[in-house]
Design goal:
Elements lengths: L1 E6 L1 E5 L2 E2 L7 E12 L8 E15 L4 H7 L3 E3 L5 E3 L11 E7 L11 E8 L14 E7 L13 E3 L7
Antiparallel strand pairs: 1-4, 2-3, 2-8, 4-5, 5-10, 6-7, 8-9, 9-10, 9-11
Length: 165
């Protein structure tokens, strides 16, 4: 597994900025392999079967939107809050695009931007109510984008988007 500490970054979820970061965000990209063995040659090859892609963001700003990003399967209430949603419900429909833009880069420089095409919250949420500064983590995990393994761009892209032809 490759964990990359991104540092402070401008992170957006479906175009909306995440709450203020308290610490560096971490991106993890772990390839999933299928072993190819021949009758005469064990471990002949490996094939990529997919990727486990997660990003963990540490926030220190209380906000309903931040909490909703951190807790999977929640539903809005009519009063502006949220509550747990129905169980056994697919989360695919709530998947969002994540864009991570390193803070030290100019806004127009997308050469090191990370885009996760479809991501859902998968971490647990914990918030303390003590005297210390509030911090909580948002952990988002990529889902397969298209359902078609012959297509490229199913989990992530690093760098500028390709131009539409």
């Amino acid at each position: 597994m490759s964990d990359v500490t991104i540092g402070l970054a401008n992170i957006t979820v479906d175009g909306e900025e995440v709450p203020r970061q308290a610490d560096a965000a971490t991106l993890s990209i772990e390839p999933q392999f299928i072993d190819v063995d021949l009758y005469t040659a064990y471990n002949f090859d490996k094939r990529i079967d997919g990727y486990n892609v997660t990003v963990t963001i540490v926030c220190d700003e209380d906000s309903i939107e931040g909490y909703k990003l951190a807790i999977p399967g929640v539903e809005d209430t009519s009063t502006g809050g949220f509550q747990d949603g129905a169980t056994h419900k697919s989360l695919r429909g709530s998947a969002k695009e994540i864009v991570i833009h390193p803070e030290e880069r100019e806004a127009s420089d997308q050469s090191m931007d990370v885009t996760i095409f479809k991501a859902i919250p998968t971490g647990s949420w914990e918030r303390s109510y003590g005297k210390e500064k509030t911090q909580y983590e948002i952990t988002l995990t990529a889902l397969h984008n298209t359902g078609d393994r012959t297509q490229v761009g199913n989990y992530f892209r690093i760098g500028e988007p390709e131009s539409a032809v």
